[in-house]
Amino acid sequence: MTRTTSDVFSEKKPPPPPPQGEANAAAEAPAIMPDAPALPPKPAMRLGEKLIAMGIISNDQLQVALTEQRNSKKMLGGVLVEMGFVTDSVLSEILAESSGAKKFDPKTTILDVELVRRIPKDVAQRNKVIAVAYENETVQLAITDIYNVLAIDQVRRHFPRNTQIVPVFSTETEILELIDQYYDYELEIDGILREIETGIRENAKLDGKDQGYINPTVRLVNALLMDAIKGGASDLHFEPEGSFLRLRFRIDGQMVQARTFHRDYWGAMVVRIKIMSGMNIAETRQPQDGRISFTVQGREVDFRVATQPTIHGENIVMRLLDKAKSLVPLARLGSSDHNIAVLTKLLLRPDGII
Q1: Nearest-CA neighbor of 131 among 145, 146, 117?
Q2: CA-CA 20 to 30 A from 71: which of 50, 136, 204, 328?
Q3: pTM
């Protein structure tokens, strides 16, 4: 068959083969698939589902609790605790982990009564909140529901305008117990001493062994420790004499007379301090050492405790170690802005001595 010129030019020529490198890359490349629809984010696991997945409760228990929740209009967590399906401690750990909020531990914390009572009692009870720390215009607020914006706004009214509220998680039982402790009982040193002398709490024995806040000795020791921390003391010296007890603080290297008590109070106070620091309360003739760790105003504070027997009773010295004060930033050295700028510039030099 004879081919014309037009046939030759109209015939489609195959494309030239790609270079060897491109051919190998094309062979290794995966086949292009059409864009798949984006999957929605996996919803967060609900409290009941999480408890079942962790094996803490059964599905039957969850259904019973949900029924009770609909009838009582309470939060599911509180219902589970009331029915005995979950303990307060387990629930608080799970809720804190799920929300990403910090967990507040009342057992290792001493609160400032002045800060707590800035929030009226009815506001604290209604919203189940309590102020636990205040520093740098920021209030840490223990609350059962960290997403309760209404409760946080009501608390904000009782602090200066620029105050920031940071919610920390706590259980309802813990908060209600703290409200009872800090609003219904005397927490000032002079008031506690009057309470002990007049016997207002008839069921509270002055023995120091009862660790509950109903015991005035427990509140008295806590108040003295808080007083030392707020006063900037580095040491507390409890010195029993013939008929009285002397308490002295070391502040900026100087021994300062802080309080004088009747010696009848000292026996119970010794027992309380020994219990707090993990000492043997029955041993009174040998020196002992112990340690107390607390969180005060949102910062960790340690006490090193040492006892020494004397002819008038046991002498106790407590060394206060505030971790927040161990390394003071430049801005808090008391220097002017100009001097801080000069010092910062000198610190950046690769050599030399300041």
Answers
A1: 117
A2: 50
A3: 0.64
